[in-house]
Amino acid sequence: MSAEIIANLTVDENGNIVVPIEAQSIRDWIQTKITSFVNKAVVDVNTPGGSAIQMSSFAYEAVGRSVKTDAELGSAFNQGKKLKFLAKEGHMQVILSENFFRDILPEELKNASFYSKRKWLIDNGIIGSRMVDGVEVESKPYGIGYRIPTQGLSSMFSFQVADVMPTTIGDTIIVPEEFTAMTGSDFDVDKLYLATYTYKDGKRVSSDEKSEQGYVNKLLDNYSLVLTDFTNIAETRASIDTLTKILQKQILPIVQPKNTVEVNPMYELAPSF
N or C terminus: fewer CB in 10 A for the chain? Predict the structure, then answer.
């Protein structure tokens, strides 16, 4: 910018711009820059997370309790239990790769064994469930997941992490079997995108904290409230195929002409069309 424009944009002793933006010769450029700054600070919010390849829960669930010992079930992922498509508070259970917890684990555990890391995550209430005063307490939701293209609330979900997998499996997420029908997944390297909560020193940053991390967690709280609200259950847990059938059955007859009329050839190329 020229020295003249900089001088015009300075603020006087009353806090007003010397020359109002509307009177500036490059007002459109200035307004574009201001909008860009606001969008970058408020709209384009960066969160922890990333993308994960979707994987079927097949072979991760115990088929029959009679053929499994307690020791075997204890060492299985999620103890061989079926992942909940709709948990008690409206969240969905998933199994995530250990890679998504690298920034949460304390420094002394970075090179520890997989089981040591897994135990720390469970003991700190980040994944799975633990006993507190004789009561089983499930972990809090870890973030929001969505697929691209996002075709509605059914393309998004709030999730709890039931268990973790070793880092050798890569950035992978295992979802409940019902999720496949809901999103129309076909496992041809389908990807899910995750926005996760911010943690500091192994603890989740409070949503009430007046900081960038606190504001990000507050934003995820608001998303989670919408996605787990049971009044929205028809939209958040309806399959895309189901919604398509509703559109075809209820909406299409309204917008489609009842009487078909043969039109002149090439009519769609005429200006009147």
Answer: C
